[in-house]
Amino acid sequence: MVTTGSIPEIGVVHKNGVRRIEIRRPEKKNALTRNMYAAMSEAMEAADKDAATRVIFLHAKGDCFCAGNDLKEFQQAGEDSKLRAGRENPFLKTISRLEKPMVAAVNGQAIGVGTTLLLHFDLVYAGCSATFSMPFVRLGLCPEAGSSFLLPRLVGHQRASEILLLSRSLSAREAVDLGMVNALFADNRVVEQSLVIAEKLAQQPPESVRLTKALLKKSARSTLFETMDDEIDHFSRRLASGECREALAAFFQHRPPDFSSFT
Questions:
Q1: What CATH number corresponds to the domain at position 188?
Q2: What sign has the CA pseudo-torsion 63, 68, 69, 75?
């Protein structure tokens, strides 16, 4: 099934349980405008509510993933900082609260919000020549999109400080080593190979996937103790489940467990 985005710069395609959202502004290095933010937010919220969609997949057309915000539009907003920031916040809040798993395929440069939006994704794959940069300090700005919170959690305080304070660009290999990217693929196959993984994820038990994502994300949204309480609640339920009973029985009987009867 193929659908279209609300504007030409954002394409939407649905196939095999994966809702593909493509940034289509290669002539401007896929720099994001307010309308593009709104269209992506709309597409992602619709995907999250659609029962046929199991995975949300983001990629971009051309040889640059995203050059950040459209600077001309950014400047035209003048001194109205609420307008400049407020237009993008709904999108960023949307991706931070989506229940379904999100996968991104990065080709070429990811600059500014092109990198920080990836910190909200569950799985990120990149081409071997991809680069990642958050040049906010160099531009006299400060981190955005929650990157001052998410990046240190991902790479550690000292490394996050170096990346943000020095506006240091990262190679694809460095991004993998730091845990920002899951794996690298050939530049001309990154979307294809990432889609294979997204389709595999779409075949997993959907409720289990959503629950696991919620548990993984909850610690970033609330306190450690609330997360522990949630884990204990779910853990106690799992102890009483048939799957757990079979696993424990197999362990004590020194045989492989058989989960073929479970759905």
A1: 3.90.226.10
A2: negative
